[in-house]
Amino acid sequence: MFKKDDIKTGLLIGLLAPLVGMFGFYFWKFRRLTIVEFVQWLGIERHLLTAMISFSLLANAIVFTVYVNRHIDKTARGIFIVTLIYVIAALILKWVY
User: Fold this and answer.
1) Residues whose CB falls within 8 Å of the CB of residue 6, separated by 6 or more in sequence, listed in order
2) Beta strands in 1-97 (DSSP E)
3) Which of 40, 89, 90, 93 can pair with 53 through a Cys bridge, CB separation 3.0 to 4.6 Å?
4) pTM of the full structure
C-alpha cells in the first residue's frame, strides 16, 4: 500500500488517516468517557469539534509528508485533495458554530 502511486489510493488514505487522528484525540483527551459520551460531549462543546478535526488533520499531514518524501506523488495528491476538503469543512464548522 505504501508503494502504490495512485490518486484513488491517496483519497482512501486521506479519508482513513484523519479517523486514526480522531481516535488519537479521543484517547489523548477523553479516554475516561465512552465513545457515546464523547460524541454527546462534542455536541455540547462544539469548539472541541474543530479542535478534533484540526488534530486529525495532523495525521493527514504526517502521511502526506511521508508520501511526498518518497516521491509517490499521485498518492500524495489524493491525500492533499482530501485534506483540503477536511480543512474547508473545519472552517465552515468554525464559522457556523
Assistant:
1) 74, 75, 78
2) none
3) 90
4) 0.82
Assess contact for 89 and 18: CB atoms under 8 A. Answer: no
| Three-state DSSP state, 9 | helix
List per-residue pLDDT tens for the chain, 97 residues long.
Answer: 566 788 999 999 999 999 999 898 898 888 899 989 988 888 888 778 878 888 888 999 999 999 999 999 999 999 999 999 988 988 888 788 6
Measured in degrees and rounded to the nearest 5, phi and psi for residue 46 equal -65, -25
Residue 78 cell numbers, joined: 489524493
Euclidean distance between CA atoms 94 and 97, whole angstroms: 6
Enter the DSSP assignment of 33: S
d(CA 70, CA 76): 10
Q: Which amino acid is located at 8 in the chain?
A: K
